[in-house]
Amino acid sequence: MKIKYNLLHKDLKTNARYGNIETNHGTVETPMFMPVGTRATVKMLTPEELYECHSGIILSNTYHLWLRPGEDLISKAGGLHKFMNYKRPILTDSGGFQVFSLAKPKDITEEGVHFKSHLDGSKLFLTPEKSIQIQNKLDSDIAMSFDECPPASATHEYMKNSIERTIRWAERGKKVHNNPNQSLFGIVQGGAYEDLRKYSAIETVKLNFDGYGIGGVANDGESKEDMYKAIDYSIPFLPEDKPRYLMGVGEPVDLLEGIERGVDMFDCVLSTRIARHGNVFTRHGKINLKNSKYKDDFTPIEDECDCYTCKNYTKAYIRHLVNSDESLGGRLLSIHNTRFLIKMMEEIRESIKEDKFSEYKKEFLEKYTK
RNA sequence: GCGGAAUUGGUGAAGUGGUUAACACGCCGGAUUGUGGCUCCGGUAUGCAUGGGUUCGAUCCCCAUAUUUCGCC
């Protein structure tokens, strides 16, 4: 069965919306934050720990799993869910972002993308068909179309050619997609160009996907203004009855801005990456636990936080772990950051249901950015 | 007791008679947005054991003192 998005309530004052997505691995509520598990693991966290964080959908990656261990092995294991023992829904990214980070523009052809393996330097060729076929075998709940992710600095001309090709790629991928239990999302590109976002959205929607990604907003050097514009220019042309997924965004402030504009899904490596480097989100902004002022701070990261880490450990202890390069430090902080964003989403959903999203946002930002 | 060697920041250490004393680690900050996990970027000795002397100028030369260390009795 394909996923089914149900729009349950629209905020009266903003474009924020509350809904849910029914999948073969349970129903999840939106807006939601999806932790990232690139290599079939949300780094440092077990599925049980993710459940304890109330994680819904998690993200994994076609490119990485294609290279290692290979889609055939995962298929043999019974699919990605069984392979990694995650019982809730999984979304797989198409490898499009890796095209951006690993290939040069000249390596991108109409047929597909040539680039070198980050593991051993061997030559690789990825096409829209190949990406979808790999994802079919991975058997994720949601597959993403194979797209190109041009940087914000791309010229209008380059961007126009790029989005036209991405649309053709989306169509090609959709043609070969044949997993009845997997849904497929299209991806809107176009940088911060209003006409291109509109064009990309309209043409992609014509292909009738199960949901729509808004991509190219968190590549490298995009300003927040460009990100917000990209959302504003895309969303009016996306159907109300399908989920919208802002790809790669996960800073608390950006989550609020995205939700206000009508985004339903987010994913981001930020929460787990910064955790491994000693940083955590708190209601009062991001803090760096490596700072010496936490040396003898024997209180939890946040008193009011309900995560495993905050219920059991002090800042001083975690700081010691991080400074000693002990992996438990990164683990505990990953738990906190993951729970932080998911809990934030829970509160946001409640606020939308009560038409109080604006108030929630204002209150959150007052504390977070002061 | 006699003779030799050494003494540079928190640590291990380079170095030169002449503007800002290398590097590494540590420490102190910062970054990080569809992940090329354990990374990247900054800052960190007004000072080269102490006191004299030589010199236009000394961390680098000389003398004394202290400490450490090696060898001999």
Descriptive report:
The protein has 370 residues and is an alpha/beta fold. The protein folds into 2 domains: 4-268, Queuine tRNA-ribosyltransferase-like (TIM Barrel), CATH 3.20.20.105; 270-370, no CATH class. Helices cover 42% and strands 18% of the residues. The chain has 15 helices and 15 strands. The strands form 4 sheets. Strands 4-13-12-11-10-9-6-5 form an 8-stranded parallel sheet. Helix 10 links the parallel strand 12 (244-246) and strand 13. The longest helix has 27 residues, at 327-353. The radius of gyration is 20 Å and the shape is globular. It starts with a strand and ends with a helix. The structure holds one RNA strand of 73 nucleotides.
Structural key phrases:
alpha/beta; 15 strands; RNA-binding; 370 residues; TIM Barrel; 15 helices; eight-stranded parallel β-sheet; 42% helix; three-stranded antiparallel β-sheet
